[in-house]
Amino acid sequence: MKLYQFDLAPASKRVTFFLKETGIEVPIVQLNVRDGDQFEEPYNSLNPFHCIPFLELEDGTVISESVAICRFLEETFTSSKKLFGKTSKERAIIEMWDRRLEIDGYIPLINGIRNKFERYAGKVLSGTRNDLPQVPAIAKRGIDSCRILFERLNVHLNMSSYVAGEALSIADITGYEVVQLAIAIEMNFDEFKEVKAWHEKLDRRFKLDE
Question: Do 61 and 92 have their domain in common?
Answer without folding.
Answer: no
